[in-house]
Predict the 3D structure of the following.
Amino acid sequence: MDVARPLAVVAPTLDADVLHRLLRAEGAAFTAGQLQRLIPERSVDGVRRTLERLSRQGVVNAVHVGHAITYRLNSDHLAVPGLRLLAAQPVELVVRMSRQLDTWPVQPLYASIFGSWARSQTTETSDVDLLVILPTAAADEVEAFVRDLEDRVHAWTGNDARVLLLDQDQVRDESLRPVLQNAQRDGVRVAGDEHWLRRALRRAAAPS
């Protein structure tokens, strides 16, 4: 799955990009040119043809405004609830990962998706990177749970998952600082206190 293009899982075409943008701005109307500026890698003609095709299917409403035509998602269309579910795949992934972490024998102080997935800069082959910080060195206790979570994420998304498992003392490790700062800046929280990592990094950087 490509977190930046969640509808591409069933429609790996411009249709997916157009529908995703309309879903994210549900209720708003766009001309083809306005919508193309949100999808700059696509052409205006391509976006216009896609909107016309979706309009013929009824999932998009076309309205003439002077010499222009504006398009908006038809929220009443039978397909829209299914489209919303597809668009919400990244949110559902966080929910499922959080539920799995709840079953661990040692509960994380903090866990977040980081890297390209957190920034929505992915392809369908990008790894899902998850940072998990435990209160104690408990790698042996959760080893099987880590493997299980990685397997489940792959089953849910088709993407490989990589869990970076640390204990709270390792936050002071200078070699890990760039990764941890990345996670603190861009991370999507999955479990634990959302402010824990920021506070821990601040303490680690303070003069002793």
About this structure: The chain is about 45% helix and 15% strand.
